[in-house]
Amino acid sequence: MNDAESRIAKTQKQPAANNKVPKKLRLGDSVRVLSMNQRGTVSTLPNAKGDLFVQMGILRTQVNIKDLVLIEDETTSSSKKSAKTGAGKIRMSKASSISAEVMLIGKTVDEAIMTLDKYLDDAYLSHLSTVRVVHGKGTGALRNAVHQHLRRIKYVDSFHLGEFGEGDSGVTIVEFK
Question: In this structure, are residues 35 and 68 in contact, taking their beta carbons and an 8 Å threshold?
Fold first, then answer.
């Protein structure tokens, strides 16, 4: 039995020594706690013995600095970049998902104006030069309300009813500044 235990003990891997002990830790650094195989954030700086607190989700525990590996975090470096270019990412995501026309047929005037207002804001932020507003022919009440609303929007350069092949009087073509 002792023979078997000694063979098992030899075959089991001993934990490797941590060659990547962090030299300079700062509050908020991302680290991996080797003994728990968990990712965490440095909460306190190490004391004289090398012990410090690491926050891992809802768990905050004290570990020795020798049990840590500093994670070169791509998300922190990209979040600094995205803070500078966040508006560009919003613009790009809007531009890829926004249509060149908005359908208002079947809506009441109040619903249509709210939908149109949001759509025009998104289209303008996406740098679309022209958009189509489909309001239908009907009695003309929706068309008149859309035209009244377009006159009040500062970033609308011009608008006109669609021509033959564009939708005639059931469509308004809007051009941005």
Answer: no
